[in-house]
Amino acid sequence: VEVCTVYACTRSNITKTTTVEDLPTDLPSPHAQVISPRAVRLDWAHPGKPSGIMLGYEVLRRTLRSCTDGSTGVAPSSDSAHGVRFKCFYLQCPVGHSVCGTSCFHPETQICCGGLLHRRKPHHHCCDKHYFSWNETSNPVCCNGKLVPSHPNHQCCGGYYVLIKTNEYCCPDHLQGRVSVGSGDSCCGGVPYSMTGGQLCCNGRLHDGYGLQCCGGQIVDDILVCCDDSVHTYKPDDDETRSGWHH
Q: 200 exposed, middle or buried (CB, 10 Å; 0-12, 13-18, 19+)?
């Protein structure tokens, strides 16, 4: 930045920053092959548009249990690791009824608040599992188990109903029982910051992200390789070096 008067000009110091890579796109569907009753092989291709340096893949597993035709009644599902077997159930309700938890109810006479049924009353509103009275004309907002008047550009954050303007973010600090509101799109140790602004959040503290990375909760140079929270110096093997000479 250069600032001038009628007599002379002066320049500020140079500030460097980095841009953030985009999310990978053009992801083809993986191919699954059943090898045995306990093994499945997954094959997938590289994203058509990585939009940056690929750091790795994550394979997530989810167990789906279907109900059999003879399973009826209501039974809570618990983790089989604790000695309780899974048991499926289905609930058949009359036409015009809805489901609240494991019970049928008629929406005209009852209301479901957080899985609990209440008898519908005028000037009452749900808040978590409670059904509170509200005499004001405007619709309230449920925040921290209480009904509060609705205001524009306000949100419930950390148990507080606070003003959050455009391009601002709210970060709760549960240890100190307060919230911090400021410009940004994420939180770092209870402080708002922008992930695209060049700052680096590491171990709950903000740092200048230019040429640096967070590895194992420590700030290190980005030319180093971080594996399992340990820093290593990149050393190409002989095969990779010969391949480079060949090409």
A: buried
| CB 171, CB 190: distance < 8 Å | yes
**pLDDT single digits (tens) 41-60:** 999 999 999 888 888 888 88
Are 119 and 100 in contact by the 8 Å Cβ rule? The answer is: no
Range of weakest confidence among 62-66, 127-131, 136-140, 235-239: 235-239
Identify the sign of the CA torsion 88, 93, 97, 102.
negative
Joined tokens for residue 101: 């938890």
Own/partner pairs, 153-159, CB within 8 angstroms, 24+ separation: 157/181
Q: What average pLDDT does range 222-232 have in this prediction?
A: 86
Residue 177 forms beta bridges with which residues?
none
CA dist list (Å): 163 to 154, 166, 215: 4, 10, 35
Cα 211 from Cα 57, distance rounded (Å): 24
Tell me the backbone φ, ψ of residue 242, rounded to 5 degrees: -65, -40
Distance (Å, whole) CA 47 – CA 53: 11
Q: What is the pLDDT of residue 84?
A: 54
Task: Please give the model's pTM, rounded to 2 decimal places.
Answer: 0.53
Q: What backbone torsions phi and psi does residue 42 show, to the nearest 5 degrees?
A: -115, 130
Report the distance separating Cα 6 and Cα 150, nearest Å.
Answer: 53
C-alpha 138/C-alpha 151 separation (Å) is 10
72 SS3 class: coil
Strand (E) positions, 123-177?
Answer: 124-127, 130-133, 140-143, 146-149, 154-157, 160-163, 168-173
